[in-house]
């Protein structure tokens, strides 16, 4: 095209814009948008990622809506490096060292409202998980730490034992068949039973009274259904980037769940508030449950409600997912199943565990090395929590060293966590068979050159499944007591087999939590 033609075209465009001001506004907006995207692309151009992620959020929206975002994140870090790009202003990392650096107690990084505010129950109201202000988060966390640690709840372990017994009784009385019996089997949906158990535990240790799901063998308060619906809505709003609508006056309130709702999160919130109010009618001066501890340390009103509600949701969902994952990998690996069951039988015969229906103590269960290895390995090869946990790089940026190279992260960039990349796909740390479920990998010979250092790094990385530093999971203590006891007692009392090995369960990732269902198993009573 000649210079004259270009000049004529420009003159025509300017004439059109001058005659139609609206066109000028639209043209200016387009220019600003393009320039903004070009700037975003350029500032992170050193980081590779899937096509379009340098200038569009479309790829990321699609993977979130797919229900398999964790797998896509793992593929990205495996293909493009331990720091990769997943959107114009968002990176993701599978580096344990970088993640530890970002989450350290005195780290200047902060949580990103873009992700965390999608997990709010009510617009504008935060809990310890959704709070993005570091100072406010730290103050709130200190008020809750004693309650979660069990220091102010001496009945924590006995309360958990009560519900382990109920779980065993439910399976034995309703689903288990005798090994020599010719009667028809009674398939059991293990996905639901694990959630009933964890909901009963967290309501008991959190509110002082269990919901009673195990006794009724039912989702008494429709929590399972409501949680799946609520997470699906949150996941969609996050994927489409429209969570900000909830912060719009009037409109936000109109589309948010309320305690008058007959279903979903609103109904859950109403039931939780009623339970809290009933619990507060009793004395909190006694060392009895988590709620009492929260009150003694200064949580009241809406703050107390949101923390207790978060505790019920997060404390039940993540632990239930862990139990389902461990049981699935055991049932699909007969060698490991038999080896663990032999260790459990030896512990029973040696008197380490009390006779049934007694429940093994947490201390004794933690001493069983193969049980510990099985739990670590299952949660490594299939992390139960795969949230992206987006962080914001401090405004002046951050110079870090990753994989032996110096890297600069520009200020204001979002950077998240690839659970699949850090744990399941981490061949550098766990070996070429990192994707394989093999508990024996945890028996590293510390006397070999570099053995002790490698094991220490493996343990540190594996523990990041529960977070790290200032954002370490408060509920880990309770969760691990539940997990050790349940796996021990289930394999002590029963044998399990998948009803449909070709499709062992249905599973979908919403907001980083797994919705798991249809995990049908056959149960046989052990002598």
Automatic annotation (TrEMBL):
Cofactor or coenzyme needed = heme
GO annotation, biological process: methylation
Q: Which SUPFAM superfamilies match?
A: Cytochrome P450
- What CDD domains does UniProt report for this protein, alphabetically? CYP57A1-like
Q: In which pathway does it act?
A: Hormone biosynthesis
Specify which residues bind heme according to the UniProt entry for this protein. 473
Q: Where are the transmembrane segments?
A: 20-38
**Pfam families (alphabetical):** p450 (PF00067)
Q: Name one GO molecular function term.
A: methyltransferase activity
Keyword Amino-acid biosynthesis attributed: no
Q: Alphabetically list the UniProt keywords.
A: Heme, Iron, Membrane, Metal-binding, Methyltransferase, Transferase, Transmembrane, Transmembrane helix, Virulence
**The protein, known as:** Cytochrome P450 monooxygenase ABA1
Native organism is Mytilinidion resinicola
């Amino acid at each position: 095209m000649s210079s004259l033609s270009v000049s004529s075209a420009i003159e025509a465009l300017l004439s059109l814009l001058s005659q139609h001001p609206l066109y000028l506004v639209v043209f200016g907006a387009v220019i600003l948008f393009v320039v903004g995207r070009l700037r975003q692309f350029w500032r992170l151009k050193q980081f590779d990622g899937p096509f379009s992620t340098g200038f569009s959020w479309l790829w990321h929206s699609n993977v979130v809506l797919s229900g398999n975002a964790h797998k896509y994140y793992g593929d990205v870090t495996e293909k493009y490096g331990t720091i990769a790009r997943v959107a114009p202003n968002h990176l993701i990392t599978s580096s344990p060292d970088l993640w530890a650096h970002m989450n350290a107690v005195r780290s200047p990084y902060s949580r990103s409202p873009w992700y965390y505010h999608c997990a709010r129950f009510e617009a504008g109201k935060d809990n310890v998980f959704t709070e993005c202000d570091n100072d406010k988060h730290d103050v709130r966390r200190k008020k809750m730490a004693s309650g979660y640690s069990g220091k102010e709840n001496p009945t924590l372990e006995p309360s958990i034992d009560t519900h382990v017994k109920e779980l065993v009784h439910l399976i034995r009385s309703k689903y288990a068949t005798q090994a020599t019996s010719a009667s028809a089997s009674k398939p059991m949906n293990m996905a639901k039973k694990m959630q009933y158990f964890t909901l009963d535990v967290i309501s008991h240790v959190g509110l002082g009274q269990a919901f009673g799901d195990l006794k009724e063998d039912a989702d008494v308060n429709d929590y399972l259904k409501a949680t799946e619906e609520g997470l699906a809505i949150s996941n969609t709003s996050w994927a489409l980037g429209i969570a900000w609508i909830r912060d719009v006056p009037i409109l936000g309130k109109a589309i948010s769940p309320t305690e008058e709702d007959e279903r979903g999160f609103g109904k859950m919130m109403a039931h939780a508030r009623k339970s809290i109010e009933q619990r507060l009618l009793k004395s909190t001066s006694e060392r009895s449950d988590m709620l009492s501890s929260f009150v003694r340390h200064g949580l009241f009103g809406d703050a107390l409600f949101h923390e207790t509600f978060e505790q019920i949701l997060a404390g039940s969902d993540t632990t239930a997912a862990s139990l389902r994952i461990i049981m699935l990998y055991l049932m699909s690996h007969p060698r490991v199943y038999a080896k663990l069951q032999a260790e459990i039988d030896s512990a029973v015969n040696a008197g380490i565990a009390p006779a049934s229906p007694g429940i093994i103590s947490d201390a004794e269960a933690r001493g069983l090395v193969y049980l510990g290895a099985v739990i670590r390995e299952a949660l490594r090869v299939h992390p139960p929590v795969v949230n992206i946990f987006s962080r914001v790089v401090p405004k002046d940026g951050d110079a870090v060293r990753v994989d032996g190279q110096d890297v600069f992260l520009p200020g204001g960039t979002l950077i998240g966590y690839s659970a699949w990349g850090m744990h399941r796909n981490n061949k550098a740390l766990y070996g070429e068979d990192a994707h394989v479920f093999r508990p024996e990998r945890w028996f590293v010979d510390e006397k070999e050159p570099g053995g002790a250092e490698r094991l220490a790094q493996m343990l540190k990385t594996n523990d990041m499944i529960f977070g790290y530093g200032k954002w370490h999971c408060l509920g880990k203590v309770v969760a691990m007591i539940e997990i050790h006891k349940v796996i021990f007692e289930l394999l002590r009392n029963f044998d399990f087999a998948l009803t449909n090995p070709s499709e062992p369960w249905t599973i979908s990732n919403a907001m980083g939590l797994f919705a798991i269902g249809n995990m049908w198993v056959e149960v046989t009573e052990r002598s």
